[in-house]
Amino acid sequence: MSLSEEAIQALQGLDTAVAVINPTSWEPVFENAAFFRFFPCSGGDGETIFDRVAGLDRDKLEKRLGRGRKYEFAIDVRQDPRTICLNLVFHPASEEQPLVLLEAQNVTKQREAELMLDSYSKMSEKARRELEREKERVEKLLLNIMPRSVYEEMKDYGTTTPQKFDSASVLMLDFVDFTEMAVARDPGALIAELNDIFSAFDRIVELFDCERIKTIGDAYMAVAGLPEPNSDHATQLARVALRMKRYLEKRNAAHPTQWRFRIGIATGPLIGSIVGIQKYVYDVFGPAVNLAARLESACEPMKITVCQPTEELIRNNFSLTQLPLVDVKGFGEQQLYTLDFEDRS
């Protein structure tokens, strides 16, 4: 089996690396300069294509060509100072052409383009994941300062509308002798304990579908009945206050530092709105906010004081103790009550 002079001249003039192989001995009967440069021989006798192309699977090649089909094999060849990516294509022999034609297609640019696209794809995916993480972080931060429904409105419309709630309840909590504790104790340890307590309060507030509005120093403010109206707002907030008391009593029994609170709960109309332009905060306004703060200030340590409108809403489900009439600044004479426990009978 041999090639004509015309065929040899034509193959030698090709830029593509080609070789013609005897399918019986698998020795090249012809190769052009480009092929020899990629797969040089060692100079020994009887060298087959398998000796010169590392990793080429003879069984797979023979089976594929035996079925009259092309066989392709990818290989990287070192050509200093770079690596060339080649795709070897073996064309099967036939009766008219009893030799196997081997093309070594240089696919380096194609591979580099694929790698570049893959790299861009990975970079894009990484950027997308980072953006998602940043969005989640921002959402988490915003949900710490505003209710979810307010956040959703702001996300959808870029602004929020102040809302009036005809009846809602406000809880104001403050710790007894916190200023003295701040002076006497290590600040890091003190704030760590305060964070632990406030985190527990947050879980309690969420458990009863209420909303923590804000903390200012050692003061804690929560509401019920907004931003989603709820007819049981006073009951839910009373349960929050009792659960906070139970939590703090258990904590005090297990810790050397004793934390004692005062809680005031008031009920009335409220307005809820986002306040601020660059620094957002969700806040509530109304007489009930001021009254709850007054009740908290006048409350005994580890007691929960509620106003009469709150008592009227919860009296059927809770045990309360009536207090003497009190002159509350800004509100005149008020009938107040101490919330003792939930009556489950």
UniProtKB/TrEMBL annotation:
<keyword id="KW-1133">Transmembrane helix</keyword>
<feature type="domain" description="Guanylate cyclase">
    <location>
        <begin position="169"/>
        <end position="296"/>
    </location>
</feature>
<dbReference type="GO" id="GO:0004016">
    <property type="term" value="F:adenylate cyclase activity"/>
</dbReference>
<keyword id="KW-0456">Lyase</keyword>
<dbReference type="GO" id="GO:0035556">
    <property type="term" value="P:intracellular signal transduction"/>
</dbReference>
<dbReference type="GO" id="GO:0009190">
    <property type="term" value="P:cyclic nucleotide biosynthetic process"/>
</dbReference>
<dbReference type="Pfam" id="PF00211">
    <property type="entry name" value="Guanylate_cyc"/>
</dbReference>
<dbReference type="InterPro" id="IPR029787">
    <property type="entry name" value="Nucleotide_cyclase"/>
</dbReference>
<dbReference type="InterPro" id="IPR001054">
    <property type="entry name" value="A/G_cyclase"/>
</dbReference>
<keyword id="KW-0547">Nucleotide-binding</keyword>
<dbReference type="GO" id="GO:0000166">
    <property type="term" value="F:nucleotide binding"/>
</dbReference>
<feature type="coiled-coil region">
    <location>
        <begin position="117"/>
        <end position="144"/>
    </location>
</feature>
<keyword id="KW-0812">Transmembrane</keyword>
<dbReference type="GO" id="GO:0016020">
    <property type="term" value="C:membrane"/>
</dbReference>
<keyword id="KW-0472">Membrane</keyword>
<keyword id="KW-0175">Coiled coil</keyword>
<dbReference type="InterPro" id="IPR050401">
    <property type="entry name" value="Cyclic_nucleotide_synthase"/>
</dbReference>
<protein>
    <submittedName>
        <fullName>Adenylate cyclase, class 3</fullName>
    </submittedName>
</protein>
